Structure formats: C-alpha cells, structure tokens
Amino acid sequence: MRFSPTCKPLQSGSLNIHGLMVIFFLLPTLFAAGSAQALLRLDFEQRYFTHQDRQVWDFSIVRPDSVYHIFYHTIHESTPHASHADTIWHSTSQDLKHWTVQGPILVVGQGPWDSGAIWAPEVFFDEASDFWMMAYTGCDDDMNQRICMAESPDLFNWTKLDANPVLEPDPSQYAWDPDGSWSDFRDPFIYRQDDLWHILVTANQWLSGATGVLYHGVSDDLLNWTDVGILFENDGANPWNALESPQYKVNGDHYYLFFGEFNAGGLSVISSRTPNTWTMANRETFDSGYAPEIDEFDPGIHIVSRLAPQRHPQTEILSYAVRLDTFLFNQDGSVDVYRAPPLGDNWETWSGIGCLGNPTYGDNPEFRGEEPAGTVGNSYFGSSEYYQGPLSGKGAPGSRLGDGAWADLSSFPFIATGDRIELLVGGGYYPETCFVALVDAATDEIIYRETGNNQNQMTLRTWDLTPYQGQMFYIQIKDDENQEMGFINVDEIIEVVDFQSSVPGPDPRQLLENHGASPNPFNPMTMVRFSLSRDLDVQVRIHDVRGREVWASGVVQATVGDNFVAWQGEDHSGQPSPAGTYLYSIEAKGSIAASGKLSLVK
Fold it and tell me: Could you give phi then psi for residue 372, rounded to 5 degrees?
C-alpha cells in the first residue's frame, strides 16, 4: 500500500451525540431544500432517482442553492454493458424525491478519446472562471479511458473543452495502452486544497502484476496535471481489482477513503487517524450497492447516494436507480447508514403488517405479471404489497403479503385551504373495512371515504373541500379486511385550488410565492417565512393538532419579496407551549393563503 503525503482532503466537522439527535429530529424535513408545500400532497415518493426505461449509472449531485442537480450517464435497461453509455443527462429536484429530467447535456463524439462512451461525471464550481466544471471519463472505440472536461455557466448548457482530453496516464508508469483495449483510467474525483486542484482516478499499475490503484494528480488550472504518486493501492485478496468511484474525506481526526471494488459489490470505506496506514485488511463494507457518493449539503448533515440494482422478475431486465439516505460519521471512525422510515415524512402513525413493505416501489403487481396498479412516480401505498425498493431490505420486485395483511395509517393533521382533494384509489370493494378517508381532526368523524372497485388499477376520486375550508383534518388509510382482494391501493392524494376568473382582485394564494419555517424543528423561537409578489396585509396563526388556536400575530403589513413573522413558542398568555407538532397558517383577505407544520422540541 502506498500513500501520497501531499494530498490533503477537504475537512468537515465531527459529529457528536447532540449532532446525532439533531439529525434524527430533522429526518422528516432533512431533504426539503425548497419551501414547504402550501397544499396537502401525499404521494408516497421515496428518496430515489430513476430514469424511465434507462439504467442510471455513475452520477454526481450538487446543490448550489435550493435545487439539487444530478448528472449521470445511462444505458437502456435492455442493454447489458456500460460500453453503450453514449449520453450524460441532467435532472433536478427540490427534495430528492420528485425529479424533473432536464435533458441530455453531453453526447459521445467530440474526438476519438470519447467516441465510444462517456461515463462518470464529476461536477464542481471553479471560482476563478466563475463556471461550473465537469470532469468525465471519455472512452475511445476500444474503451481506452481518459479524463475530459466540460464547462457550463448555469448547470444547464454544457460545452466540452477544446483541450480534451485533459488527462491520461503515462503508459510507462501505469497499465494503460492507448493502442490496446479497455485500459482503466476512469471515475474522476476532484477537490480543492492548498490553492491547487486535486484529482483521484481509478487506474491500474504494474506492481508484481496488474494492481488496482488510485492515481493522484494536482493542477492549478484544471488543464495541466502533475502526477504526484498513487494515493492507494489494492493490497487485498484480489489486488488486480480496480478501486472504482473513489472519494477522499476527513471527519474529525479520521481520514476516510470511500470506493467500490470492481467485481466485488458493496460500498467500501477505510478509515484511519494516520492515512499512511490504510490497508484493505481494515476495509469495511458499510452498505450494498455501487458507486458511493458522500455529500454535505447542509452543515453537519451527510447524505450517502449509491447505485441500487433490481432485476424485474418477469423480464429478467437489470435496472439501476440512485438511492439516497442519511450517512453518519461515528467518533470511533466507523460509519453508518440510517434509513429513515419512508412513511415517516407524512404519516404520524402507522401500524400493521400491511405497512412493512410500504410505500411499495414501482408498479409491483406488474412485476408479477398481473394487472398494473397505475402508480404515479416511483412509489404508492398497497396494503398487500411487500417491496420498498432496491437496497431497502424489504421484499423484492413482485413480492406480496396477501389479502390477510392489515394496515392503519393516519397522516399529520393539516388545515384545508384548497377547493378539493384528488386521489387515486384501487383494490377490493370493502367500503367499511378497506378504505381511505378524510377525517375531522377535532372529532375523528369521517367526512369522505373511498374504497377500491375490485381491481388493482387505481382510478381518480375527488372530495369537495369548499364546505370545510379552514378546518383541520387528517387522512386515514385502513385495511381491516382479509377476504379475497382484501387490500387497498392509494396514490397521489393532492389538494387542489380552483382559481375563478370572476373573483374580484387577485387571490391571496396567488400572491404568496413560497413559504416555510426555520428553524424547524425549533426551541424556543422559529420564523414563519413567506414571499409575496405584491404588498399585502397578512396575519400568522398557530394551532395545535386538534385545531385549537395557540397564538396569533397582529396584522403585518408585508411587502413585495421576503417577509417573516417570529413565534417565540408561547401561547396567548405568554406561557411556553409544550413540545409537539403545531400548524401555522398565513391569512390574508379573510382566508388562508398557506399553511405548514412546525415541530417544537424541548
């Protein structure tokens, strides 16, 4: 094993026990970089990124503001090999669950160095040029690999550099032959340290036979690189295996090397207080999947992303998605992956074996060769289904619990501000024992309920909210039926506003562009923030989960742009409110323009 002493990785703060507690409090809102939703939306989406009909392969995620951007190379699901990856794509999200494909940004063919395939984008910002940069692997027609660069002013429009390829290894020092076939030199990882750019690259070197190593180079302009010696060599049982998708981090007093070992599977990490003692003998496989990426988008909160494979049982087609979870650095140098309960973001309580594999991932009945459920997005709730998704550890594509599974879920309370709720419902026809309902939070009275039509396929239902605006409700899903088709499928529970052109003057909900609260969770004070497109008098009210008003601000003369109203966590009498969940509403012109959820912690 060799280590290059000139390499100094980017630092991040250590995580103490208090930090762990903060992360667990933040889990329901951890991935919400944007503003809170103004209207109810329960769609069961999980923290995956998928691209329809394509395998998602090596990727890079950045978040320059409130929007996440993922860049990735793909191949068609029916294509067996990465040598067919001819396009790098770009998609965006505000919460790591709902993604919009922006389109392809780079394709093969600028020169012979990337005429065969392009892989493994690594995106970062260069302050000197004020441009976003992308390092990527370019492959010629024989799959000999080199490092190329592209640039963008805005993350949407990319141009390959004329200087490509910017880096290829010295054939006298590495097992790399530009006239041969499949010469390893791929998966760049770039960071800035000591006024220099550093790059790590998956490579091979002749060390008593071909050995997987990590090339380490430095540059002051991203174009001209100096080899400063390999960072690490594979000294394990299979030294010829390449070390793919490397990342080099420091947390506290531990140095970490993350990678995937070719042909071995799983995410690997080696940590040490003295990195020159790194060895594969101390390698920990901390999770399944491929191509690990560790990011810190918010201070002290880390996210692990990796490729998550699944095989469709009917077609045997292999598919890959990107799965994202919370990542923990422990004080002893070990690491953990925390998988938040996927129902926990929106559902206050859930029980029953029908919840064990939910939300179910993909159109699970279709995986079995049955009538599809017609899910929107990557997940829905099906009380008989048992597949939470790749790397979840819950079920597998096509798995089913059966009609005897029972379930009971209640959402967090919300204030009805829209004109109607639309939802998709399927399953057996059992109105009294297998249904989804709108429930009055104060009385537990069911206002509306829907059951299936004895088919998997979900159909659209509508609930009129106009008689109930301003009241507090929750959504209940219940399966207490074990006869044939004793299950319910639910998706896309969405509150809708109908804007009428006949209403005089602009509706206040149209004037409020976004809103949210920070900090949230909080103690003892939080600020309800909102943006307006014109001046407006508003008032903020705080209710408990039973709909009782706890506190109200005076009328605030809010102006165009960003505004906030502070709540000190006290009731009308000035006494501290107990810890728990609260609802805020922003009112204007006698109606509720928006609402959201608060968590007061003690």
Answer: -70, 155
pLDDT in the model for residue 17? 35
> What pLDDT, on a 0 to 100 scale, did the predictor assign at position 504?
53
Mind giving me the DSSP string for 553-576?
A: ---EEE-SEEEEEEE-SB-TTSPB
DSSP secondary structure letters along 482-498: -STT--EEEEEEEEE--
Q: Dump pLDDT digits (tens) for 485-544.
A: 999 999 999 999 886 534 455 677 778 888 889 888 888 889 898 888 888 889 999 988
Which amino acid, residue 24?
F
Residue whose token pair is 């009538």: 371
Domain 347-496 indexed as CATH 2.60.120? yes
Q: How far apart are the C-alpha atoms of 599 and 418, rounded to whole Å?
A: 23
Tokens at 183, concatenated:
């010469």
Q: Which of 178, 105, 176 is nearest to 140 (CA)?
A: 178
- Report the b/e string of 475-496 with b at 16+ CB within 10 A: bbbbbbbeeebbbbbbbbbbbe
DSSP letter string, 369-382? TS-----STTEEEE
Decide: 561 and 531 in contact? Cβ < 8 Å.
yes
Number of other residues whose CB lies within 10 A of the CB of residue 557: 10
Annotate 110-158 with DSSP letters as a single string. SSGGGSSEEEEEEEEEETTTTEEEEEEEEE-TT--EEEEEEEESSSSS-
Between the CA of residue 319 and those of 78, 125, 322, 390, what are the distances in Å?
9, 31, 11, 10
User: Mind spelling out the 3-state secondary structure of 293-349?
Assistant: EEEEEECCEEEEEEEEEEECCCCCCEEEEEEEEEEEECCCCCEEEECCCCCCCCEEE
Contact 267, 278 (CB under 8 A): no
Question: Which residue ranges make up each domain of the chain?
Answer: 11-33+46-338, 347-496, 509-600
Angstrom distances, CA of residue 585 to CA of 540, 588, 596? 6, 10, 7
Both tokens assigned to 594 = 């928006």
User: 11-33+46-338: which CATH architecture?
Assistant: 5 Propeller (2.115)
Does 2.60.40.4070 match the CATH number of domain 509-600? yes
Terminal Cα distance for the chain, rounded? 49
What is the pTM assigned to this prediction? 0.81
